Amino acid sequence: MLRHCQNLTALCRGRLCTARVPAGVTVQVRTLIQPSFDYRFISDNADQLHENALARNVRDSHPHRVAKLYDEYRSLLTSINESRSSLNSISKELGELASRKRPTQNNDPASGLDKIGKEKAMDNLRDNARIIKATVQGYEARLSTVESHLRYEAAKIPNLTHPDTPVGDETQARTVRIHGSLHEVGKVPSDGVNAGDLSDQDFKDHYDLALNLGIIDMEAGAQVAGSRFHYWRGAGALLELALVQYAMTRAVSAGFTPHITPDVARSSVVDACGFRPRSSAEEARLHTEMGGSDALAGSQAQGESSQIYRVTPVAEESRLEEGAAAADPLCLVGTAEIPLVAMKQQQILDKGVLPMSLAGLSHCFRAEAGARGRDTRGIYRLHQFTKVELVILSRPECSDQELTRLLDFQTQLYADLGLTFRVLQMPTHELGASAYQKFDMEAWMPGRKAWGEISSASNCTDYQSRRLGIRARLPVSHKGGVGQAPQFVHTLNATAVAVPRLVVAILESFQRPNGHVVVPEVLRPWMMGIHVLAPDSLHK
To answer: What is the torsional sign of CA 39, 280, 142, 469?
Structure first.
């Protein structure tokens, strides 16, 4: 299965140039990432990949179409190579004719062709060469079209799936374990229905608590930026900073290198990481341009909306035709995973730097299209929030244990906050395009009377690294023994702190009957002496 994952996704290639880089790193600099997929693997395993896509609820993946296009691609390459071989033969013959000595006076055939015969033979060869060159141009034009279609179709094939992954939608998520005992209750209801069993206390909703404490201003956020934007105020701002410091401090202690990343990334980078930077209408238009049916294009136009915000400078926008988009526009990132992984794009790493453990702080932007009416009260579902993300670049054979490392880190992080939370193994419909295996963690939120997602952790194997060209010099076996060769690394990602979700869990879990909220002890070093959140607690 590991070999399958390594061969499934994109292998980048393009024009190279040199740049100054740190020792032990080779960089291949390109202006735009052009993936080159392993079409042979897709063709040889089309049935398996088709079933895998269906299990993940991906309906626009067509590996058999890739196999058919790949057959044409190979046939065109063969024809081009044969034609070029013929051109080489003709060139050789022309050279030999041109170098022959002039005939003798008695016109002895052994001494060479007469002048007229020689010129006629060379003219015939040149005519044949012109015909073959025109044929090659036709083959190459078709080859370019086939390559575009191959890349388009291969890009829609999701990563393979870990064999232990439950099949189905979110209702099929498997509870791995539950941590904590909220309010000293022995058993937290796993379905979130019998919330009354937790305590006789009447738990308040996080938004009511936040308004009473004066730590958030949603109205100002809506006036300035629109709905589902917010201001942290007073102790609320300190609480965000405390959560960030807590997560970063723990991450550095665990061997992660801290980063503050860009909040934007190029569309090609967002796409290579497995996110959708195009609108449904753009997907449908691209589908039609690639020769797809109008009926399927229409269904894609009605498909799932992208959650990505696109950024276009005003000056550039004015130069674009109406309805057009830049070739590789900037997008607001939905997670620091994107810039953290992409910072190593088109590099060959030394094996000694693996595993490479990175922690990134960024703002995250999500359109949340299609989420109207779902969890929109308060700060549970926002368009912008702060998050600390963890990313690991790993040797392929070590990625499973690195995923366990991430889960152990998250477990300790949330346990020390005092939360009650559960670990879920997510089913196939919840994996996205890039994840081979994924786990979510959900905190019990008594005010909402439900479990709420606070983090996830995923092993993306080499889905992203192949698309971004991230390799490392690793040992390989061959007939002559063991050597080293560039191999694609595996990428993993995990949430350390998604601030609004943890604030919801903290407010609802540690509230007092009077509406005050106890600050978890591990956050107090960054709270300027505030141990209990109360109205105007910052200035008391």
So the answer is: negative
